[in-house]
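dumping this here so i dont lose it
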């Protein structure tokens, strides 16, 4: 896995494929595929259907008289692989270089598995059940290798995880002094810290202060370097937008909201923040 991560020669291919994926006319469907509505990436959920279908087909292939059911399961797996792959590509297009390298190999393994399973289905349809079984077992082996690569992406490289999840653990309860009201010009995101956790603080047109965790939940992007847009802060790295009033993510690729802080202003102009517990 470390060897794959270090293959900088894959970066040129990744950039070309990334441009193609970003150019797809998906509109609002892009955030649907990302899992914005679900609260976490959709791709891991979608892959359960093809993997489950193919695994079940492999079990049935071990018993006589189950060739028809196995063939149908192989077909279901092939039909469901497309949506799962599309969701995966949409997520992959916003990943870091080392993640993208592993993702390319992951996708290559899965494309190979789909191709082998297509051959398996063709053989079964023509009555070559022995060849269909052999190709099915081969396809499952390759798909399993692809799954291992996907696990590395998620659990070793933290692709798709909520990078702001630790904030409630790191910030002590209660109020934290972060400056004075004059430190926060209207409409300009400002970085501050509470218990060494970075915050982005924005004073809106009405003079109200809003504070969110600064590191974007998608890929740790610095929100204080982003834009203040109609009550939202936009991440400068990948364009995720979070509503300042409640931290909700209104545009992906982020699928998790930002931790939010209450703000108060003392009579002398001092500003304090307190993490909102959810």
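and the seq i came up w/
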């Amino acid at each position: 896995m470390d060897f794959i991560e270090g293959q900088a020669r894959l970066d040129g291919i990744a950039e070309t494929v990334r441009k193609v994926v970003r150019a797809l006319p998906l509109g609002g469907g892009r955030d649907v595929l990302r899992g914005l509505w679900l609260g976490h990436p959709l791709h891991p959920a979608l892959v359960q259907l093809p993997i489950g279908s193919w695994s079940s087909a492999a079990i049935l292939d071990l018993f006589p008289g189950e060739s028809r059911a196995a063939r149908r399961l192989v077909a279901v797996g092939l039909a469901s692989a497309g949506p799962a792959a599309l969701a995966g590509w949409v997520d992959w297009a916003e990943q870091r270089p080392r993640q993208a390298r592993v993702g390319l190999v992951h996708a290559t393994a899965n494309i190979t598995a789909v191709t082998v399973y297509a051959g398996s289905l063709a053989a079964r349809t023509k009555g070559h059940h022995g060849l269909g079984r052999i190709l099915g077992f081969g396809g499952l082996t390759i798909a399993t290798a692809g799954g291992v690569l996907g696990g590395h992406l998620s659990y070793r490289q933290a692709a798709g995880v909520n990078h702001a999840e630790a904030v409630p653990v790191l910030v002590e309860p209660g109020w934290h002094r972060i400056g004075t009201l004059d430190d926060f010009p209207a409409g300009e995101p400002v970085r501050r810290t509470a218990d060494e956790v970075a915050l982005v603080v924005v004073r809106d047109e009405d003079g109200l202060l809003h504070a969110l965790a600064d590191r974007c939940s998608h890929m740790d992007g610095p929100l204080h370097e982003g834009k203040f847009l109609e009550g939202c802060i936009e991440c400068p790295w990948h364009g995720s937008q979070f509503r300042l009033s409640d931290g909700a993510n209104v545009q992906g690729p982020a699928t998790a909201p930002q931790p939010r802080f209450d703000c108060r202003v003392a009579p002398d102009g001092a500003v304090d923040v307190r993490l909102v517990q959810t």
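Residues 167-275 form a domain with the Rieske Iron-sulfur Protein fold (CATH 2.102.10.10).
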